[in-house]
Amino acid sequence: MTGRIAFQGEPGAYSHQACHDARPDMEAVPCRTFEDVIEMVRKGEADLAMLPVENSTYGRVADIHHLLPESGLKIIDEAFVRVHINLLAVKGATLADVKTAMSHTVLLGQVRNFLQEHGLRREVGADTAGSAKIVAEQGDKSVAALASELAGEIYGLDVLARHIEDKQDNTTRFLIMSRQPDLSRRAGKMMTTFVFRVRNIPAALYKAMGGFATNGVNMTKLESYMVEGNFTATQFYADIEGHPDDENVKLALDELRYFTSYLEILGVYPADPLRDER
Fold first, then answer.
1. Mind listing the pLDDT tens digit for each residue in 56-82?
2. Predicted confidence (pLDDT) per residue in 205-256, tens digit
3. CB within 8 A of 62, min separation 6: which ones?
4. In the chain, what is the straight-line distance between the N-terminal and C-terminal CA atoms, in Å?
5. Options 7, 80, 114, 172, the catalytic residue
6. Is 80 an active-site residue?
7. What is the pTM (predicted TM-score) of this model?
8. Can you tell me whether residue 39 is helix, strand or coil?
9. Options 114, 174, 212, 236, the catalytic residue
10. SS3 224
11. With CB atoms 3.0 to 4.6 Å apart as the test, which of 67, 147, 154, 202 could cross-link to 132 if both were Cys?
12. CATH 3.10.180.10 fits 86-161, yes or no
Protein backbone atom coordinates (compact mmCIF):
# COMPACT_ATOMS: atom_id res chain seq x y z
CA MET A 1 0.00 0.00 0.00
CA THR A 2 1.24 3.48 -0.88
CA GLY A 3 0.05 6.67 0.69
CA ARG A 4 0.59 8.62 3.91
CA ILE A 5 0.35 7.62 7.55
CA ALA A 6 0.22 10.30 10.26
CA PHE A 7 1.76 10.05 13.72
CA GLN A 8 2.21 12.30 16.74
CA GLY A 9 5.70 13.56 17.53
CA GLU A 10 8.96 14.56 15.88
CA PRO A 11 10.55 12.43 13.14
CA GLY A 12 12.30 9.55 14.90
CA ALA A 13 9.70 9.24 17.68
CA TYR A 14 8.60 5.75 18.69
CA SER A 15 5.31 6.39 16.88
CA HIS A 16 7.42 7.04 13.77
CA GLN A 17 9.19 3.75 14.44
CA ALA A 18 5.78 2.05 14.57
CA CYS A 19 4.90 3.53 11.16
CA HIS A 20 8.25 2.42 9.78
CA ASP A 21 7.77 -1.14 11.04
CA ALA A 22 4.06 -1.64 10.30
CA ARG A 23 3.70 0.36 7.06
CA PRO A 24 7.23 0.64 5.58
CA ASP A 25 5.90 1.50 2.13
CA MET A 26 3.96 4.55 3.32
CA GLU A 27 5.17 8.11 3.88
CA ALA A 28 5.16 8.85 7.62
CA VAL A 29 3.89 12.36 8.41
CA PRO A 30 4.67 13.95 11.82
CA CYS A 31 1.97 15.90 13.68
CA ARG A 32 2.06 18.04 16.80
CA THR A 33 -0.86 16.43 18.67
CA PHE A 34 -3.07 13.32 18.56
CA GLU A 35 -5.92 15.60 17.49
CA ASP A 36 -3.84 16.79 14.54
CA VAL A 37 -3.17 13.17 13.53
CA ILE A 38 -6.88 12.38 13.55
CA GLU A 39 -7.78 15.57 11.68
CA MET A 40 -5.27 14.84 8.90
CA VAL A 41 -6.95 11.51 8.23
CA ARG A 42 -10.48 12.93 8.53
CA LYS A 43 -9.64 15.59 5.94
CA GLY A 44 -8.06 13.05 3.60
CA GLU A 45 -4.59 14.60 3.93
CA ALA A 46 -3.34 11.24 5.24
CA ASP A 47 -4.66 7.74 4.61
CA LEU A 48 -3.98 6.23 8.03
CA ALA A 49 -3.34 7.28 11.63
CA MET A 50 -0.86 5.57 13.98
CA LEU A 51 -2.01 6.09 17.58
CA PRO A 52 -0.46 4.61 20.75
CA VAL A 53 -3.03 3.29 23.22
CA GLU A 54 -1.08 1.54 25.96
CA ASN A 55 2.36 0.62 27.21
CA SER A 56 3.25 -2.57 29.07
CA THR A 57 5.09 -0.58 31.76
CA TYR A 58 3.07 2.62 32.11
CA GLY A 59 -0.46 1.56 31.15
CA ARG A 60 -2.81 3.39 28.84
CA VAL A 61 -1.92 6.59 27.01
CA ALA A 62 -3.69 9.55 28.61
CA ASP A 63 -6.76 10.93 26.78
CA ILE A 64 -6.56 8.46 23.90
CA HIS A 65 -9.72 6.57 24.92
CA HIS A 66 -11.66 9.83 24.83
CA LEU A 67 -10.37 10.67 21.36
CA LEU A 68 -11.01 7.34 19.63
CA PRO A 69 -14.84 7.27 19.76
CA GLU A 70 -15.07 10.95 18.79
CA SER A 71 -12.58 10.67 15.94
CA GLY A 72 -14.93 9.17 13.39
CA LEU A 73 -12.10 6.82 12.39
CA LYS A 74 -12.07 3.02 12.50
CA ILE A 75 -9.37 0.64 13.67
CA ILE A 76 -8.07 -1.56 10.87
CA ASP A 77 -4.92 -2.99 12.51
CA GLU A 78 -2.88 -3.12 15.70
CA ALA A 79 0.90 -3.01 16.03
CA PHE A 80 3.04 -4.00 19.01
CA VAL A 81 6.37 -2.15 19.06
CA ARG A 82 9.26 -2.98 21.39
CA VAL A 83 10.59 0.18 23.00
CA HIS A 84 14.35 -0.13 22.61
CA ILE A 85 16.14 2.81 24.23
CA ASN A 86 19.53 3.90 22.92
CA LEU A 87 22.10 6.47 24.00
CA LEU A 88 22.72 8.81 21.05
CA ALA A 89 25.48 11.39 20.80
CA VAL A 90 27.13 13.63 18.21
CA LYS A 91 29.66 12.14 15.82
CA GLY A 92 33.00 11.39 17.43
CA ALA A 93 31.70 11.38 21.01
CA THR A 94 32.46 8.45 23.31
CA LEU A 95 30.60 7.18 26.35
CA ALA A 96 33.33 8.71 28.50
CA ASP A 97 32.54 12.16 27.04
CA VAL A 98 28.86 12.04 28.03
CA LYS A 99 27.84 13.65 31.31
CA THR A 100 24.12 14.29 30.69
CA ALA A 101 21.33 12.21 29.16
CA MET A 102 18.30 14.05 27.76
CA SER A 103 14.86 12.60 26.99
CA HIS A 104 11.18 12.61 27.84
CA THR A 105 10.62 12.16 31.58
CA VAL A 106 8.90 8.77 31.04
CA LEU A 107 11.89 7.41 29.13
CA LEU A 108 14.34 8.72 31.73
CA GLY A 109 12.52 6.57 34.27
CA GLN A 110 13.07 3.46 32.16
CA VAL A 111 16.89 3.57 32.14
CA ARG A 112 17.67 4.22 35.80
CA ASN A 113 20.14 1.36 36.05
CA PHE A 114 22.20 2.51 33.07
CA LEU A 115 22.25 6.14 34.18
CA GLN A 116 23.31 5.21 37.69
CA GLU A 117 25.99 2.80 36.49
CA HIS A 118 27.61 5.48 34.30
CA GLY A 119 26.97 8.44 36.59
CA LEU A 120 24.93 10.35 34.02
CA ARG A 121 22.83 13.36 34.97
CA ARG A 122 19.22 13.42 33.76
CA GLU A 123 17.82 16.29 31.73
CA VAL A 124 14.14 16.38 30.79
CA GLY A 125 13.43 17.11 27.14
CA ALA A 126 10.13 17.74 25.36
CA ASP A 127 10.10 14.24 23.88
CA THR A 128 12.47 11.50 22.74
CA ALA A 129 13.01 12.47 19.11
CA GLY A 130 12.96 16.15 20.03
CA SER A 131 15.80 15.51 22.47
CA ALA A 132 17.81 13.82 19.72
CA LYS A 133 17.21 16.83 17.50
CA ILE A 134 18.44 19.21 20.22
CA VAL A 135 21.57 17.14 20.85
CA ALA A 136 22.36 17.20 17.13
CA GLU A 137 21.83 20.97 16.91
CA GLN A 138 23.90 21.78 20.01
CA GLY A 139 26.86 19.62 18.96
CA ASP A 140 27.96 19.17 22.58
CA LYS A 141 29.74 15.84 23.16
CA SER A 142 28.86 15.92 26.85
CA VAL A 143 25.10 15.75 26.19
CA ALA A 144 23.43 12.65 24.73
CA ALA A 145 19.84 11.73 23.94
CA LEU A 146 17.82 8.68 24.89
CA ALA A 147 15.76 7.72 21.86
CA SER A 148 15.21 5.22 19.06
CA GLU A 149 17.87 4.17 16.58
CA LEU A 150 15.66 5.68 13.89
CA ALA A 151 16.07 9.07 15.60
CA GLY A 152 19.82 8.57 15.50
CA GLU A 153 19.70 7.92 11.76
CA ILE A 154 17.50 10.94 11.09
CA TYR A 155 19.57 13.43 13.11
CA GLY A 156 23.01 12.00 12.28
CA LEU A 157 23.90 10.80 15.77
CA ASP A 158 26.09 7.88 16.82
CA VAL A 159 24.68 5.07 18.95
CA LEU A 160 26.94 4.82 22.01
CA ALA A 161 24.85 2.15 23.78
CA ARG A 162 21.99 0.02 22.47
CA HIS A 163 18.91 -1.38 24.23
CA ILE A 164 19.70 0.03 27.65
CA GLU A 165 16.13 -0.07 29.02
CA ASP A 166 15.69 -1.59 32.49
CA LYS A 167 12.80 -3.83 31.38
CA GLN A 168 13.57 -5.83 28.27
CA ASP A 169 9.90 -6.54 27.52
CA ASN A 170 8.76 -2.90 27.42
CA THR A 171 6.22 -2.75 24.58
CA THR A 172 3.77 -0.16 23.25
CA ARG A 173 0.57 -1.12 21.50
CA PHE A 174 -0.54 1.08 18.61
CA LEU A 175 -3.80 1.19 16.69
CA ILE A 176 -3.82 1.89 12.96
CA MET A 177 -6.94 3.82 11.99
CA SER A 178 -8.65 4.70 8.73
CA ARG A 179 -11.69 6.63 7.56
CA GLN A 180 -13.41 3.40 6.55
CA PRO A 181 -13.65 0.09 8.46
CA ASP A 182 -12.43 -3.17 6.92
CA LEU A 183 -14.70 -6.04 7.96
CA SER A 184 -13.75 -8.34 5.10
CA ARG A 185 -10.58 -9.89 6.52
CA ARG A 186 -10.37 -13.19 8.34
CA ALA A 187 -7.11 -14.07 10.09
CA GLY A 188 -6.18 -16.80 12.57
CA LYS A 189 -7.30 -14.48 15.37
CA MET A 190 -9.51 -11.45 14.93
CA MET A 191 -10.03 -8.65 17.45
CA THR A 192 -13.05 -6.41 17.91
CA THR A 193 -12.85 -3.12 19.82
CA PHE A 194 -15.90 -1.22 21.02
CA VAL A 195 -17.09 1.37 23.53
CA PHE A 196 -20.38 1.32 25.45
CA ARG A 197 -22.38 2.85 28.28
CA VAL A 198 -24.63 0.69 30.44
CA ARG A 199 -28.21 1.57 31.24
CA ASN A 200 -28.90 3.07 34.65
CA ILE A 201 -30.26 -0.11 36.25
CA PRO A 202 -28.89 -2.25 39.11
CA ALA A 203 -26.10 -4.67 38.14
CA ALA A 204 -26.22 -3.51 34.52
CA LEU A 205 -22.49 -4.01 33.92
CA TYR A 206 -22.54 -7.46 35.52
CA LYS A 207 -25.48 -8.50 33.34
CA ALA A 208 -23.96 -6.95 30.22
CA MET A 209 -20.74 -8.90 30.70
CA GLY A 210 -22.59 -12.17 31.26
CA GLY A 211 -23.20 -12.65 27.55
CA PHE A 212 -19.48 -12.86 26.83
CA ALA A 213 -18.96 -15.49 29.51
CA THR A 214 -21.91 -17.67 28.50
CA ASN A 215 -20.99 -17.51 24.82
CA GLY A 216 -17.29 -18.25 25.34
CA VAL A 217 -15.98 -14.90 24.11
CA ASN A 218 -12.62 -13.89 25.55
CA MET A 219 -12.52 -10.26 26.65
CA THR A 220 -8.89 -9.14 26.75
CA LYS A 221 -9.51 -5.57 27.93
CA LEU A 222 -12.19 -3.66 29.81
CA GLU A 223 -11.49 -0.13 30.99
CA SER A 224 -13.77 2.60 32.31
CA TYR A 225 -13.44 6.36 32.11
CA MET A 226 -15.59 9.40 32.81
CA VAL A 227 -17.52 11.08 30.01
CA GLU A 228 -16.98 14.84 29.75
CA GLY A 229 -15.82 15.03 33.37
CA ASN A 230 -19.14 13.76 34.68
CA PHE A 231 -18.75 11.53 37.75
CA THR A 232 -22.07 9.78 37.06
CA ALA A 233 -21.50 9.12 33.35
CA THR A 234 -19.08 6.25 32.73
CA GLN A 235 -18.06 4.84 29.39
CA PHE A 236 -16.32 1.51 28.91
CA TYR A 237 -13.67 0.55 26.35
CA ALA A 238 -13.33 -3.16 25.51
CA ASP A 239 -11.32 -5.52 23.32
CA ILE A 240 -12.58 -9.02 22.60
CA GLU A 241 -11.28 -11.91 20.54
CA GLY A 242 -13.43 -12.72 17.52
CA HIS A 243 -15.37 -11.14 14.66
CA PRO A 244 -18.90 -9.65 15.00
CA ASP A 245 -20.07 -12.15 12.38
CA ASP A 246 -18.97 -15.10 14.55
CA GLU A 247 -22.11 -16.62 16.03
CA ASN A 248 -20.87 -16.52 19.64
CA VAL A 249 -19.69 -12.92 19.30
CA LYS A 250 -22.98 -11.92 17.67
CA LEU A 251 -24.97 -13.41 20.55
CA ALA A 252 -22.73 -11.73 23.14
CA LEU A 253 -23.06 -8.31 21.46
CA ASP A 254 -26.84 -8.73 21.16
CA GLU A 255 -27.04 -9.35 24.90
CA LEU A 256 -24.74 -6.39 25.55
CA ARG A 257 -27.01 -4.10 23.52
CA TYR A 258 -29.96 -4.99 25.75
CA PHE A 259 -28.20 -3.54 28.79
CA THR A 260 -26.55 -0.53 27.15
CA SER A 261 -27.67 2.96 26.19
CA TYR A 262 -24.82 3.38 23.72
CA LEU A 263 -22.60 0.92 21.84
CA GLU A 264 -20.16 1.64 19.03
CA ILE A 265 -17.77 -0.77 17.36
CA LEU A 266 -14.50 1.07 16.74
CA GLY A 267 -12.85 -1.62 14.65
CA VAL A 268 -12.45 -5.24 13.60
CA TYR A 269 -8.89 -6.26 12.76
CA PRO A 270 -6.37 -9.15 12.80
CA ALA A 271 -4.48 -9.65 16.05
CA ASP A 272 -0.81 -8.70 15.83
CA PRO A 273 1.34 -11.87 15.99
CA LEU A 274 3.21 -10.31 18.93
CA ARG A 275 -0.01 -10.19 20.98
CA ASP A 276 0.34 -13.82 22.08
CA GLU A 277 4.04 -13.34 22.83
CA ARG A 278 3.16 -10.42 25.10
1. 877 788 778 788 988 999 999 999 999
2. 888 899 999 999 999 999 988 776 666 667 899 999 999 999 999 999 999 9
3. none
4. 27
5. 172
6. no
7. 0.88
8. helix
9. 174
10. strand
11. 147
12. no
